[in-house]
Amino acid sequence: MSTRPRKSAVRWRHSETATPHPLCVSTARAPLEAVKNLIFVLFLASSANAQTNLRNSVTFSVGSAFTGPRGNGQFDTTVGLGATYRYRWFHYLDIEADITTALHPTPTLRGATFTIDPTDNFIWVPFGLRGVLPLRNGAMELSAGAGGIYENYSAGNIPPFVGRQSEDAWGGYFVAGAASAISRSRHYWLGASAREFLGNANRTSAHDLWFVVTGDFSFRF
After folding, report:
1. How far, in Å, CA of 173 to CA of 209, rounded?
2. Which residues pair with 106 in a beta bridge?
3. What is the dihedral of CA 10, 12, 16, 20, to 10 degrees?
4. CATH of region 55-220
5. In which element (H, E) is residue 102 found?
């Protein structure tokens, strides 16, 4: 009797121990790789959105406001206070509205029969656009902008026969600034700004040119 194994049995054992074709392996792994890639892309997208979703910004500013020089070469210098709201319209462009005041800018007035410590004030309401240049992966920013302003001058206790009286004006402004995030969440920022306000008085031919330099603290959300 012959002991030669049957061909069908040999073929069956060979098929049981055969190595899978590389194409079949790669085809089986393709859906898993696609899922991994999708998860990675979603993670990157969520990280990017977490950095750009802080579109709103509220800034409080304290510094100096000055104008001049007068005929004697002296500048009027006083305290400047401000608050600004900015909205990140596009990645590199903000819409902003501001209110800034110069407290008691006129120096002491003296005459033959009077001495007055003025309580006058300037209030400016700028509105415009500001371009933004992010640096250090968005942890720092340089910015510059321009727009229009509404100006209000309140004469306070200055009598009409001594000096300028209360009036309104319209004009324009320029601003430049720099800021840096001071928290990992980038909600809190410190910076500095320089503003130039030019107002054209409605009832007189006066032109007000003021510069305001401030330190800024911002909260973004």
Report:
1. 10
2. none
3. 100
4. 2.40.160.20
5. strand 93-103
- Quote the Cα angle for 92-96-75, to 5°: 110
Residue 57 and residue 209 in contact, taking contact as beta carbons nearer than 8 Å: no
Give the per-residue pLDDT at 164: 80
Sign of CA dihedral 63, 210, 100, 217: negative
Q: Which residue has the higher pLDDT, 125 or 50?
A: 125
Give pLDDT tens digits for 66-82.
986 654 445 678 999 99
Question: How wide is the angle at C-alpha 107 spanned by C-alphas 105 and 111, nearest 5°?
Answer: 140
Q: What is the pLDDT of residue 102?
A: 95
Domain ranges of the chain: 7-48, 55-220
Q: Which two tokens mark 199?
A: 């107002």
| CA-based torsion, 206, 210, 126, 151: positive or negative | negative
pLDDT one-digit tens code per residue, 141-154: 999 999 999 999 99
> Is 1 buried (19+), middle (13-18) or exposed (0-12) by CB count in 10 A?
exposed
